[in-house]
């Protein structure tokens, strides 16, 4: 009996020791997990701080555009540039295998052809409107009038496409009239500018007329020209018809009777 009791007590002691060791192992593994979690949390905090530092330098408008377009949700880190240095000058340069090889190999470096618009290039000089008009005045003085005479002869003979000839003739007449009006306005502006320069030399303040006043002066000149040529009545009749057609749009229609 005494021997059985001693065996039972020894078994109880061994089981207690095993349970204590298992408890110690569990507590050790828990501390390790806590340490790993704390380490990962510190890593994420550092990453967030780096991202915040990058976003702080970006303008607000760029951030708004990126968010509204939905293309960029967050600013990722800038990729490190690949180092292409050689350890020794006799060794070949190491190139990453991740970059795809181009289909066409550049054998000879040919000069790149650049297309330039002379209207927006400073190399072509500044645009001088008066010089440009003088250089291309032959279009309105020689070419268009000659084409007008040729089209009139073709229409008189009835040869060729009459519809296209009529449209082209109307376009030429319209262009010539508009060019004549442009030249008149430019001449009037030049005369006004010369008068104002002389007035400034005498000590007076310069006067810049409004567009409405310039339009009134143009209408007065046009009225005098039409009256002198005897075309005033015809012009006024056309203008009345045009105005009546415009006013007719605002007249209320009669409601349909149901």
Automatic annotation (TrEMBL):
Q: Which UniProt keywords apply?
A: Nucleus, Ribonucleoprotein, Ribosome biogenesis, rRNA processing
Keyword DNA damage assigned to the entry: answer is no
Q: Where is the composition biased (Polar residues)?
A: 65-76
TM region(s), chain numbering: none
Annotated localization: Nucleus, Nucleolus
InterPro entries of this UniProt entry? RRP36
Give the main location: nucleus
Q: Where is this region: Disordered?
A: 1-110, 180-216, 234-258
Record flagged with keyword Chloroplast: no
- Which stretches does UniProt call biased (Acidic residues)? 8-37
**Quaternary structure and interacting proteins, as annotated:** Associates with 90S and pre-40S pre-ribosomal particles.
Family designation: Belongs to the RRP36 family.
Biological function: Component of the 90S pre-ribosome involved in the maturation of rRNAs. Required for early cleavages of the pre-RNAs in the 40S ribosomal subunit maturation pathway.
What is the designated name of this protein? rRNA biogenesis protein RRP36
